[in-house]
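Appendix B. Raw example, untouched.
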Amino acid sequence: MPKLNDAVKKLLESAKTWVIATHGETPNAVPILFKKVVGDDELVLFDVFMDTTIANIKKSGEAAISVYNDETLEGYQIKGDAAYTTDATLVAAGNSITSGFQLTTKGAVSLKIREVIVCTPGPDIGKSI
């Protein structure tokens, strides 16, 4: 399983939003504000308003994350196996973030990374890391 290198992790941790793309009955791509990097091979996105996203993940088990810096043009697409959970520990971790916005975490999407693709303009664009 591919691991996140330091450059990808740094961008993921500094980006205000990520975009998650899913497919199922309806293709779907939405910005995500409530999220975190877990180790070198997993991302967690906290569910506040993810109805279509969750339905698609339950159907396909896959998702992609796009993250970018619009000033430096550094960007990556991260593809992986996605699962939805209402695990109490993850919900509590989500609520520690979402409660500051007076929102409640309902669950979380865990993305086990399969592939990281460079989206930064240049000679490596489109290449897997």
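End of appendix B.
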